[in-house]
Amino acid sequence: MTRLQQIPWQKRTPQTPPLFASHPMHNPIGQLGGSEDEGMAKFRWLDGRRLIETNPNWDQNLVVGRYSTPPIFSVVRVEALRSLLPQERFILEQAAHISTLSLVNCSFSTLSGWPDELSNVEALDIVFCLSASFDPLCFSPWVTVDNMTSCRGLTIPAPDLRGMPSTMDILKELDLSRCEHIQSLAGLPASLPSLETLILPPTLTTLEGLPPVLDSLRELNMLQCDLLADLRGMPQRLPALTDLDLPPALRSLAGISQHLDAFDDPNMLFKLEQLTDLSGFPSRMPAMRSLLIPFHERFDIGSLLVLAQTHIPYLSKLHVPARFASNRSFQSIATTLGRAQPQTAIILY
Fold this sequence. Notes:
This protein has helices at 28-33, 39-47, 86-94, 330-340; strands at residues 6-7, 19-20, 23-24, 51-52, 59-65, 97-104, 123-127, 153-155, 173-175, 197-199, 219-221, 243-245, 290-292, 317-320, 345-348. With 349 residues, it is of the alpha/beta class.
């Protein structure tokens, strides 16, 4: 039986380390599967915990973790590890605010005994570092998420998005970078009015399924999405977007949002080594002040004329590869762009 000891509450600094059922651990995930993976270390982790009298104003992080095999010296039965331990449930029920609930090698569907509500949890982070014992296709992270009414951040390794709550009006950050089996966004809520950050999974093959309106979105990260051939399915208007990371292997801008009112990153195209032209380039980018054109032989210089029809009133610098100057049509293209965008200087690099 786990020995429980109650200790008086003491004032903590805001930078409180994550709690393993109230026992401070500076690097909990490392201690689950790294050099600390020794029998005695496991014993201390599972059996040496303490209950704590939770201050109602204390914001904290809580880590609930499980091993693939029980500790050699543990007096906690294997059956007990299939549900929340008393210490874990105590904190979940008593803490006024849990900034981040981290589930390591476990989830709502693999552990029983969860409270009926987790309205004090503001962010959920699920990580599996014991991949040999984890079958992602048998895993569902969405059980209980409906009861996390204050949750503003989700980082999960889900096999798909089916079962995701249909409404998540206060969700601000959704990180799907650990989802290594998701090919489509089917199941994503049709409305995410507060979403500010979206990180998409590496196996994604289409953007179909994204909500048509994401007016609060500030960051859209597709850096790992090497299988995306184009951007069809992307909302046509992203008025708040300031950080856009396109897939480096992207070959076409087809489907990209046409209205990027707040976006002004000059390097949005520079890392796209497979991009051959500017077809599909946004029609409205009033905040853009500088733009770099990719440097590779396959790029079609004639597609620069697309910029003549783009609303970019403050574009002062257009950086193009110096080799463009030797193209016979370059002077004509530069003249046309100069008439359409007289405020823009073409700079060779």
